[in-house]
Lipid II isoglutaminyl synthase (glutamine-hydrolyzing) subunit GatD (Catenuloplanes atrovinosus), 369 residues
Amino acid sequence: MSINPEWSAPGQGGQSWGDQPAYGQQPPVQGQPQPGYGQQPPAYGQPPVHGQPPAYGQPPVYGQPPQQQPVYGQPPQQAPVYGQPPQQAPVYGQPPVYGQPPVHGQPPVYGQPPAQGQQQPGGQPAPQGAGGDSVVRVVWVYPDLLSTYGDRGNMLILAKRAQQRGIPVETIEVRSDQPLPTHADVYLIGGGEDGPQALAAQRLNADGGLHRAVNQGAAVFAVCAGYQLLGTSFFAKGAKCQGLELIDIYSDRGETRAVGELAGDVDPRLGLPRLTGFENHGGRTHLGPTVSPLARVSVGIGNDGQTEGAWRGKILGTYSHGPALARNPAIADLLLRWATGYDTLPPVDDTWHDHLRNERLTAARPNPA
Ligand SMILES: NC(=O)CC[C@H](N)C(=O)O
């Protein structure tokens, strides 16, 4: 992936929301199936045997009534009867709603069977993540080098929120002396001190697995040191280090260390509530024209006191620890939607996340205007 060498100077470029398409309007990633009309829900378990009714949880067979995929915490819905019209007719031009069959041209909703008559032999494959099947695979990259302020929680929250929806999920922790698997759907990279951060960047560049995974359409969520090393360069222990060049950012050092609460209003195209987190970093990050800031800072420093984090496609970086996905569960759901191709996920109980968010956002002291 090439990076535009003519980056704007800090504070001049990449500071607007840019013209990236919003989620749901992203251009297709090469080699990735696009969810749409006539697609099947993800397959679970074994393929059905010819002449046998499909077992619970298996994909529907053409000519047989599709069965409802169960959703954790939801009562099973009645499967449509062959020869009978579906109970709810899809409405053209309406966004998909959980509990309704998929609409032509719209991504399907997790847990819904295709509507009767939409099932086509030889149709499009089911929406799926970069791993090529219905299991969402989450790799936690180098926890032996990059894991500060509870970054492990990001993996736990992501897995928990998948399980709560009945989405099969596999978590894989990959140490820095192991090759990085390239078949996963989401890669999590945590924060770290300068020395381990520099070593992690060297090893990730030598391994090449993260680059291959991104080219195959995997999502990346990176925090602090992990965020900095996604760019072209960063500073560690006073030395300029080569980054992964996966996004159009670079980092230098600030005059002071940024330590404390971090909050901001997220790029509206991502459809997320306010960002909240804890930051502790010496680096300052500058965005080129091909990435967008994740948020506009209202509390703390983030990239440079104005913007915080960056995103492009399915790569998202932030200075927010906390862990970030415990404080911002909507980001976890965004990653799950990117991984599964589903536009909508069933809601889950966010009571404790909301308590945490309210408490932290209330405690945070806004920057002077
Ligand atoms: N918390 C972190 O990940 C720190 C990142 C980096 N070492 C810095 O100080 O900027």
Summary: Confidence is low (pLDDT under 50) at residues 1-16, 18-108, 112-127. The first helix runs from residue 152 to 164. Residues 148, 191-194, 197, 224-225, 280-283 surround glutamine (CB under 6 Å). The helical segments are 152-164, 194-207, 209-215, 225-228, 324-327, 329-340, 351-363.
